[in-house]
Amino acid sequence: MGSYIPLIGLGVAVFTLIFLVLRTRIHVILAMLIASIIAGVSGGLTFANSVEVITKGFGSTLGSIGIVIGLGIMMGRVLEVSGASEQIAYSFIKWLGKKREEWALAITGYIVSIPIFVDSAFVILYPLAKALAKKGKRNLLTLVVSLAGGLVVTHHIVPPTPGPLGVAGIFEVDIGAMMLLSMILAVPCVIGITFYAKWLAIKYPEYQLSDKDEKPENLKKVYQSYMEEKVSKPLPSLFISLLPIIAPIILILIKAINNLLLRTEAFIGQEDNLYFQFFDFFGAPIIALAVSVLIATYTLIPKVSKQEAIEHLETGLQTAGIILLVTGAGGALGAILRESGTGMILAKYIASLPISPILIPFIISTLVRLIQGSGTVAMITSASISFPIISQIPDVNMLLAAQAATIGTLFFGYFNDSLFWMVNRMMGIKDAKQQMIVWSVPTTIAWGIGLCGILVLNLIM
Quick check: 398 and 391 in contact, CB under 8 A? Predict the structure, then answer.
């Protein structure tokens, strides 16, 4: 019976966490700390030891990715206020031509949501989708769902978005490797959502916003005012708009590739080579994103005053606090499970089950996402619980396990998801069934495609 006490305690801790988040006024950070103490004490730690482990786990997790999260958010804020995201959208639409607007918006969402928060990016780009629906005589549902689909996928699974960064830190995997893998996995997910969005035009062929939902202006006026705003506020060039996004990705990926090369026989002992040293420094996520912030500040908003530039950067940092605290609290919970031995006990049971261990973080993140809605909380909670467990199981690919924790959070976005309401309310959809057809189903399609990708890669790798 003694060996079951830590498992029962973990179950109580998780139940307490979910109950406190859903049914009380207690914030998720406090809820995670309370759950950590319950798991620690039930796992054999004293209260004093539990507090000590929580402190160390919190600090070590933020020590690895805290600065990176802050820099990523600062860079995203500059992209948001400078109009870079709008320029990217216009450019892709111009290249792809008429009748391919949904693909242009999906690609735009795929790129823009890597550095910019998904809710902010959707608010910025929604008027463009709305205007294109009128100008190109396209179905509004198709364009908006394609845009939102591209945004939501990369926001949930691609670093340097804060949630995936936190998962990478907890799983102790290389950020560059995770970035490359997640960008590949995101592509079929976005394609799947876009094809579904095209089907929505068949299901709702005559769909239009009513006058009541449209407020005083109609779609034509929205388009005209949007274009006038674009003329009065010149947008940065496409190259400059993309540079702050692409530069850190290239630097981080080159470092990741170099690390693989240095393990091969041809490059053994070449670590001191100037080339490898250069990219080892500039490819470190902290340095790469610091470079990105500098590029964004001096190229995207070159004419603003020093004070205004600092205000833009600090406005972005205001949103970083809650993400940093949630990530740190998740790291504290993971440290408790490791130190108490609960992770080892669970690992023995899971190793005997007829399922791949990488499905454990996927299942946990899926359930937590469905229960409480926040993708960031779901993936951090999943990583915190699952890493101490599967790290005790031999031959588990931690990179795939970390990615599985992020992909699980795409499952069935519905009433407790803020983007669910933004997508549906902005289009005036009030029927609950139609709301789920428009948004819950496509996110679940991406979830299923992502799971298939993970399983296939697990067989190969």
Answer: yes
